[in-house]
Amino acid sequence: MDELLQKVRQLNRRVQILDGYDDDISRECLKLLESIKEIKCLIAERKKILQNNQTVPEDQMRLINRLRVLQARMAYMNVNFPRGIIRFENDNSPARQTSEEVSSVKIETSDENVPVSQTNYSSPQPTAEISALTVPTPKPRGDLQISVSYVSNLEFQNVPPYMKGRLKVTDVNLFIDYYNNTLTKKYELLKKSKNTIKVKNELDKFINWKSQITSDTTGLYFCTADDFFTESGIKFGKKEFSLITVLRHMKRIREIRNKKLIYYVACF
């Protein structure tokens, strides 16, 4: 009997909810709707803030590099600048007193009584290696049909030092430029019909490139080291292979090996 009464109460409660009879439940539903609207507005504001802050990491990296330059210069000046020439407030260190004594003796024994402030002195330039400031990332070229995106300063900073060695971000982006040029020339020729090609050199390249298209490379844009040399005049050496390693790490290209040939496939 108790179970039946409990079920009747539950059914009665559900009927009241469906009919909107209970004022408390209606008010709670309205409050929930208002809360949902407020949450949607907050999410939209956060999205705008995230979009506006996309360029902040590169600006911060540029400021960090400038601070490192200033820090290196200050460290050099603190160690190498003659302390007897410039007076420092509240400086009673032995090095300070010794430098003052030596400078005063030199002035007294000199033939010409020349004030210290008039002596010609040029501080040596710091020899410590200072990292160069970041350079702007090139804008995408509009004259190329096929192009891999350039590398930003922030991406290049995250490459492990052992991998990039002495390479600079300008070297990487210049190599990407040659790579895009090679791909564009190659696939412009492949779009032509074989019967329309009259130059023997172009016909030989057309036949060679067509033979490279297999089930593994269909629909992909790729080139080889020989293509770099014939289309862009770039002969692969130690530096070029290092650039390939960096671009593979940054997911700009990937490799497909076919016997002795290596296809450098573009990643978009």
TrEMBL record:
It holds the Pfam family SKA1. GO terms for biological process: cell division; chromosome segregation; mitotic cell cycle; regulation of microtubule polymerization or depolymerization. Residues 96-127 are annotated as: Disordered. One of its GO terms (molecular function) is microtubule binding. Residues 115-127 have a biased composition (Polar residues). One of its GO terms (cellular component) is spindle microtubule. Belongs to the SKA1 family. This is SKA complex subunit 1.
